[in-house]
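We treat protein structure as text, and this decision shapes the records that our systems exchange. The tokens are whole numbers drawn from a learned vocabulary of local backbone shapes. Below, we set out a record of this kind in full and without editing:
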Amino acid sequence: MLERDVGQPASVAGQGDVGVAGTTLITDLPYGPKAAEIAREAVAVALHGTEADLLDDARLITSELATNAFASGSPPLVLCVDRTAPTTGGLEVEITVTDGGCSHPALSSPPAPEEEAESGRGLVIVEALADAWSLTTGTHGTRAWCRLTRNARPSTAST
């Protein structure tokens, strides 16, 4: 069992996965305007040492998912970041934000925001940056999930 505390990430090394090294971070997010900021900080902890472009994409996606959960959902807000490195190389990151639910039906694809709109681009950003994503909404819980994958870089050593 993982202990969770608002704003204090819990991290657990992967166990039981043959051929995969991984880390899971789970943290409660505050139900308020600070949710996105705390989520970005938690992702930085979970992905410490990864390449800058992956970290930037993950932080932006997480910020959007946390903002949507606060704006459209209800408490509690929970962030989960799974980082795995298969023995074949590369890196896979799965980000999930859940909340207590909302009264809006799930969208099959994000709507295009009005050009002058100040909001409404969150899921469009997620769709553009993630390799896969999903959104499941309901009155008892909402789950926004995405995956970012980076392939192993070929060796530059000469033979």
Summary: The beta strands are 10-13, 20-29, 77-86, 91-99, 132-136, 142-150.
